[in-house]
Each structure stands twice: as C-alpha cells, then as structure tokens.
Amino acid sequence: xxxxxxxxxxxxxxxxxxxxxxxxxxxxxxxxxxxxxxxxxxxxxxxxxxxxxxxxxxxxxxxxxxxxxxxxxxxxxxxxxxxxxxxxxxxxxxxxxxxxxxxxxxxxxxxxxxxxxxxxxxxxxxxxxxxxxxxxxxxxxxxxxxxxxxxxxxxxxxxxxxxxxxxxxxxxxxxxxxxxxxxxxxxxxxxxxxxxxxxxxxxxxxxxxxxxxxxxxxxxxxxxxxxxxxxxxxxxxxxxxxxxxxxxxxxxxxxxxxxxxxxxxxxxxxxxxxxxxxxxxxxxxxxxxxxxxxxxxxxxxxxxxxxxxxxxxxxxxxxxxxxxxxxxxxxxxxxxxxxxxxxxxxxxxxxxxxxxxxxxxxxxxxxxxxxxxxxxxxxxxxxxxxxxxxxxxxxxxxxxx
Length: 401
Known about the structure:
Helix content is about 30%, strand content about 25%. It is of the alpha+beta class. The protein has two domains: about 5-70 and about 185-250 and about 350-395, FAD/NAD(P)-binding domain, CATH 3.50.50.60; about 125-175 and about 250-345, 2-Layer Sandwich (D-Amino Acid Oxidase, Chain A, domain 2), CATH 3.30.9.10. The radius of gyration is 21 Å and the shape is globular.
C-alpha cells in the first residue's frame, strides 16, 4: 500500500538517502528489524549500543514510508487526555505512560547528540487550545490531574493566551517540555552512523513474504526466495505490521499536511510553539528550521489510498482556513502538501512487546500522534528485554493491558 502521496517536505529538504542493497544471498544474524523508518532506526541504535548484532530490512527505499510524511512533533501529551486515559487503563498506568512519553523527548535528544546526527532537533513549548468555550472544563480537569502527577503544565486564561501567544481564544494548557525535529534526517542519520561503525547490516528493497517460528528463532523468506535466520524479529513497520499480528489492534486513519513558503522570521508566532486543539480531529501547527509553517489534521477514517488522495485539494483549503482563524495576520502560502495513512488505538497507547505466546517476535508499534516518542520507548523496552533488564513500561504498553 502507498503510505503517503503528494510532496512530503522532508524528502525535498533532505538529499534522498539513495541507498540500494537488496538481499542477494541467504543470511543469518541475531535480530532482524523489519522497517527502516524512525522506529526501526531507533531500535537498531539501541541494539547496536548494547552490542547485539542486528540487521534492518525494508521493502522500500530507506526511510520513505510513514517517516517521510511525519510532521515530527515531540510532545509528552498523548492523543487521549490523561484524565480520560485514567478511566481506560487506570490512573497509575496512565500517569506512567505520560511520564514515559515526557522522558523519551530528552532521550531522543541524547541519542542525536551522542551520534552527532543533525536532525534539526529544537526544544519548544506546546500550547493546547480550547476549541470551544465548553472545552475549558476539559482543560481544567486535565490541568489538575497533570499537576497531581508532577507533569509540566500551565493554565493560560483568555488574557494570558493573548499576551503570551497573540492568540484570541478561550484558554489553553501550556508546557515548555516539547520539541520538534526532522524525522527523516534522524532515521537515515542513525542508520548511516551504525553502518559506518560496522555495527549494522541494512537491506533495502527486500520484502518478507513468509515467516515461521523455528527452534530458538525465526526463519524469514523474501519475495526472491532468500532465507534469513535469526533469534529474534522486531516488527517496526507501522500499520503494515498488521500482517504479522494474529488480529487487528489498530484503526486506520487518513491525515493531511501542508508546508508554507518560507516567511520572514519576525512574522513567526511567539516561541515557535507546537499548537494544537481540543476538538477532534484536532488541527496542529509547527515551524521548520528554514522558517516555514507546517500544519496538519483533517483526519478521517481510512477507506483506500485513492479516496484519501482525492480529498487532498479539499483538505488543503480547510487547513488553510483553520490556520487563518488562529493567526490571521501571518501570511500562509502553500508550497507543498501531502496525505498519508496512520494508525490509532482506542486508549491512545502504542503496542510494544511480544504477542502472548510468541516470545521471539517483538512489536514496536508507536500508533497515534506520539509515534516518535513511542518509538524511543519501544527501542528501550526491546533492548532491555534482550539484555535481561526489568522494565515496568513493558506491562503498560503490552498486548495484555
């Protein structure tokens, strides 16, 4: 399936990682990671750091799946608000999920610094706007439970929102513990780093069509009939991982994103905050290092790629209109637009770990708007499992929750 169409900004901004190395012979290693996007690259990084021999395999050009279409906002907030999630999975587990998401932002920054990968990582604030006056009650409930669990949060009333962010609105929750990055540069940069150190094997344009569990591991077969033997498999293929799962665990959604022409830096909104709304589906916006504005949303249930793509022109107009409601004085001219498909779960949490009874196939499924932070958590959990380190997060994000 085409994961996205249109013209994703990251593929234009960066030089395409024109890496071609399809598997030509039978192969054996300790861990095979299926998927070369940000999830697969972070998993590879953690395993390489632990001295575990691994290989990344992708049926596409490296990093050109969902990662290329990501708007790459890093927030500890999860798609399901904490006070609602507490009712779904219990308050303690919900709070731990939020705290893990918060920590992962710093962990990603540390990984990029350690490997010297330039992924335009930038710490910014996050502003969650009340879309309607009635949503202030939602923000108040969320504010209280976040404070209770020592999560960074500030309540902005109408006057404070206007003064600090030049937004005419009802109110917002704000925190200064968010970030943004270039997801494609991060994924390809991490893979290049470990290739250069001879710690990783990387195979592109190699598709797995069959797999079976064997004694002490897995045997995978490619569409070309090549056999791969390994002790463990990590599925880091986004919603395409569904074919490896015994049953469906996610919902598919179509999403849309735009990036503007560059503008004068003086015209960009205060603090370059990540801005998003309480309404569902929510509208969101961020900036880029070259002073463009990236906006997105207008999500709807996925039907098929053709239907998704046909709506792109209509969605562009709607997203432009929503931006003008927030910052009517800032000029926004669309330079690039794209649409894609992503997955979500009912409780807003990812699925990380093994399926019950299948202890050698790990899933790193960072569904929802927090895919990148979830990917960092997944990489750490899998590393810890393979090195015998206890990790309480495994239960919170596991299939048995």
